[in-house]
Input
Amino acid sequence: MAEIKMPMEPFRIKVVEPTHKTSREEREEILRKAGLNVFNIPAEKVTIDLLTDSGTSAMSDNQWAGMMLGDESYAGSKNFFHLENSIKGIFGFSHVIPTHQGRAAERILFEALVKEGYYVPNNIHFDTTRANVEVRGAHAVNLAVDEVYDPLSDHPFKGNIDTEKLEKFIQENGKEKISLVMMTITNNSGGGQPVSLENIKKVSGICRNYGIPFYFDACRFAENSYFIKKREKGFAEKSILDIARETFSFADGATMSAKKDALVNIGGFVTLNDDELAGKLKKLLIISEGFPTYGGLAGRDLEAISRGLEEILEEDFLEHRIAQVHYLGKLLDDAGVPIYKPVGGHAVYILADKFLLHISRDQYPGWALTVALFRESGVRTVEIGGVMFAKKDEKGEGEIFPELELVRLAIPRRVYTASHIHYVADALKKLFKNREKIKGLKIVSQALPLRHFTVRMEEI
Ligand SMILES: *Cc1c(COP(=O)(O)O)cnc(C)c1O
Output
């Protein structure tokens, strides 16, 4: 991999939270009690937590100051108007509807737009997006470019939708059977890979041509804009805000989990242009989330989101953010640890089946690696592979495994420093040297669906 400069943290630390060290014996005991499932480990026993970048950001002094300015009025809180202003300034849509997190935004949008038997194409659906489509009896369809499934292809925008596949899909199924097209930026379920503005324009053009609504799943829009600035011709001189505005100018609306690029611990929203649809969404919002000027959040949360959305656009921050993730990728790659390339925006993904060549897929190498890494170092990661996504084969006896067997190291925003990153890399390098000692696993008990949350395992 090319030289990666690690810029210094563009912040200094005002409040600290101690990390927790444990001994190897303690970690053995913790794993035993947890049934070798890192989801069952109390967070206090985790030294460095790379389980997710969702809701785990550190807020700034400016955001915390905003929390004290929470206006907790039931209707018309000033923080709502501030949030509305921030979102309109970036996204440019006329309606802003806050929700308690991203999946609530998806639920109300799909409840209004998606009907049984209809289709919702996306590059790759995130789990909650897929679930919210399928719960309506509709079909969630992935139409990403093939390169995303090749962990070594160096395509700069592996998050792109394959426009030929999209065009063909619309013609085969009929434009009237497609509720909306979504596009996830960056593509979380596909390695955190970005989408190019050229692709956004093309997909938007196809949707407009057929009269199909086009929405973004915009959780990591700022990281995506940064990749466009760095990798796409003609954007080097543009600001992140300009690129984000141009991105959203091609769509009819967006859903967003504020737990990602809004740098907060809870929150989400839908934003859109269609007046009639916005009216429907507000009715659905009132039933389960709350009045349209708070949508299931406190006034202080709305303020923190609006300030976070302004901070995420700072290029110094994004430069450090992406470099930190890529730096971890480079440390691992240089040591020969097999990783998904190019490294995406919010996480490094280890190719666990290549890391543990001696463990067959039916002994869950990805899961085994998450267990071994915690035992070695107290670092928590997540398997995105056979345990999370296996399907039953036709006879219902064996399992069909997903194409990629990954372990994700998701990096929370503004939480860890370069020395934490080194600690993680060193632990993985040591494991890689002694990888033959890592054992395969068998399932002792599981509850379907989403078995990864509850499964208990044993070493073979
Ligand atoms: C996190 C996430 C969601 C869901 O958001 P929640 O706030 O967790 O409900 C949807 N789409 C993508 C791409 C995400 O990363």
Q: What stands out?
A: The pocket of pyridoxal-5'-phosphate is lined by residues 54, 101-103, 126, 128-129, 184, 188, 217, 219, 257, 259-260, 268 (CB under 6 Å). The chain has two domains: 24-53+314-459, 61-311. Residues 61-311 form a domain with the Aspartate Aminotransferase; domain 2 fold (CATH 3.40.640.10). Residues 237 and 443 are 53 Å apart (CA to CA).
